[in-house]
Amino acid sequence: MCLHRWNFCNLSALGSEQSWKRYFLQRSHLEIKMTKGQSGGYTCKSLRGHTGRVVGLVYLQGNSSQLPNLQSSNAIVCSASSDGTVRAWNVQNGGLLWCSPVQSPLTGILTDEECKIVITSDSTGLVKTWQGQTGQEVASYSTASPHCTLLQYNMNNGWFLTIGTSQGSVCTLAGCSLSKKSNVVVCDSFTVNLLLVSPDKKWIMAGTTQGADSSPKVIFSESLTSSSGDEGPLSQLVPVSGCQAAVFIPTQPARLAVIHHSGNRRDNALTVFDVSIKKMKYKIEIQVQQVESFPLMLSAWSSGLHLAAKSSNCMVLAAGEQLWLYSLKGVLLSSFKDHTGPITSISVDSFRVVTASQDLSLRVLTWRNHRDGGLTLESRYHLLGGSHTMARGFTHVACDYSSIVASVEGNDGKDVLKAYSFTS
């Protein structure tokens, strides 16, 4: 029953203290609570302390959907703010675990759950790494860029951080000590604000959403992370322009979906590419081959566009107040308009989709399998974030298996985190 419902790899990981029967009942009850969202099925904590805008929030330690700990959950979320601090919070009890010293306003945050490392960037271009358990600073590196897009990944037993800058370049650092490996220009005169790594870690996609004629690039990651070679990195343009959003399909080695302008630039399309390498006698070529392309019912420059991929044939797209579910061939599987204000952030995992909106609500939708094996979404319930007399709406949302954390923009300039925890 457990294998059929949750595709476990290893039931022995449950240990001797908990039988699979007890686990099945506890997890089933937890999922019922997460599906219904009724009063009493969850607790809500307000995490206060920031004196500025929250610019990002990420889980440092989450409860995995693969094999969640149903007895206790010690989820930790980290938030970065324009007040110049990083704060780490216990999601269940709302307690502050640590707060970093004040620096210039922060602009971005990432975590590496495996190494328990927090990465931040600030408005002066200073990138720092922090020890996740204690908040101790580990290292820093100055990019001299007021805007940094952060991407962390592990490959070939190495730890790497690639940074997109406002000068249009991509800088790659190695190790938590942040030693420089490479710096290459990707889109001259535009900010690199799109930065993705493929599931097989062989490819980095870098681009901008600012240039109508600009095309993103796919770069062979080893040519960014190795110090050798005086030639530039091995890269190839993705044959689209006016890129607005992109995502790698998580269940494929290197399949890339891009939303971009089409035709006379008044319309948008979503095009899917496979990225591969072709070795010839005297050189190596990158191939970016189109798999599918279809039009989208969006205006040319839709602000606040969010794109995420669930599986090899399922993509979630949000723009304005609406949410769409598309197959990779362009079939509209379902659409929703549950919000009365623009969607500002989305979180997609194996159990649910959560949308955050300026209408000061979160909408929870859960996945359901069709008989033919396909997926669809069911819209379930709202989680409310307070009153509009105190706040302007939700700005960011993140989830682990049994909790949801979102930031609320305060009218007084002091943002608050809302942590919703579900228990079995």
From TrEMBL:
<protein>
    <submittedName>
        <fullName>Transcript variant X2</fullName>
    </submittedName>
</protein>
<dbReference type="InterPro" id="IPR036322">
    <property type="entry name" value="WD40_repeat_dom_sf"/>
</dbReference>
<dbReference type="InterPro" id="IPR015943">
    <property type="entry name" value="WD40/YVTN_repeat-like_dom_sf"/>
</dbReference>
<dbReference type="InterPro" id="IPR019775">
    <property type="entry name" value="WD40_repeat_CS"/>
</dbReference>
<keyword id="KW-0853">WD repeat</keyword>
<dbReference type="InterPro" id="IPR050505">
    <property type="entry name" value="WDR55/POC1"/>
</dbReference>
<dbReference type="Pfam" id="PF00400">
    <property type="entry name" value="WD40"/>
</dbReference>
<dbReference type="InterPro" id="IPR001680">
    <property type="entry name" value="WD40_rpt"/>
</dbReference>
<keyword id="KW-0677">Repeat</keyword>
